[in-house]
Design a protein that fits this description.
Number of helices: 8
Number of domains: 1
Distance between the termini: 28 Å
Shape: globular
CATH class: Alpha Beta
CATH superfamily: Pyruvate-ferredoxin oxidoreductase, PFOR, domain III
Length: 196
């Protein structure tokens, strides 16, 4: 299988690392070669968290500038900051709900309008799938399930060779029982957000 390079980016606490780990485990279950890597940065302080999931015939987890086939953004400004990883053939799946950085909160910066962010993304890549993932997470009954929403959207996009059933089975096996019902609901909401 040709390599599919997926970059997942977000802010500390949004569940990026769990989503990439689950994606990697589902790929292994599907018999797809996979390499997963993560960069934590200052995640515990609300900083950027980036992970890569590379599927197919490849051994390195590194996704250089211009190499990402898919960019999944849990936060719109972080999606924009990671745009350099994309090419004109990239598909971007992004949450549109902002989580402004600390500098904005204390008045030392300004958060750009989300519409402007989306326009910049659309100018640079083949396809942008954008929706309010936070609203869908709340609808699932667990506002902390954004990662499951975004994972559902990634699978729903049809851009990677992992079925919804296999991904849900992995979620069932690898996440806490107390969150299972809301995680599966969140996954379905994200899946349908890009299917509809």
């Amino acid at each position: 299988m040709d390599a599919i390079r997926c970059v997942i980016v977000g802010v500390g606490g949004q569940g990026n690392l769990l989503a990439s780990r689950l994606l990697g485990e589902a790929a292994v279950s599907a018999g797809v070669d996979v390499v997963v890597s993560e960069i934590h940065g200052m995640a515990q302080r609300g900083g950027v968290v980036e992970s890569t999931v590379v599927l197919g015939d490849i051994t390195s987890p590194i996704v250089s500038d211009g190499e990402a086939d898919i960019l999944v953004g849990f936060e719109p400004l972080e999606t924009l900051r990671t745009l350099k990883k994309c090419s004109p053939d990239t598909t971007i799946i992004t949450n549109t709900a902002p989580l402004p950085p600390f500098t904005v909160a204390i008045g030392q910066g300004e958060y750009p309008p989300v519409d402007m962010i989306l326009e910049k993304l659309k100018d640079k890549v083949k396809e942008v799938m954008a929706f309010d993932g936070n609203k869908l997470a709340e609808k699932s009954g667990n506002p902390l399930s954004l990662n499951m929403v975004m994972l559902g959207a990634l699978i729903g996009s049809g851009k990677i060779p992992i079925s919804a059933d296999l991904m849900k089975k992995t979620i069932e096996q690898e996440t806490k029982r107390v969150f299972l019902e809301s995680n599966l609901r969140a996954f379905d909401l994200g899946f349908n957000a890009v299917k509809g």
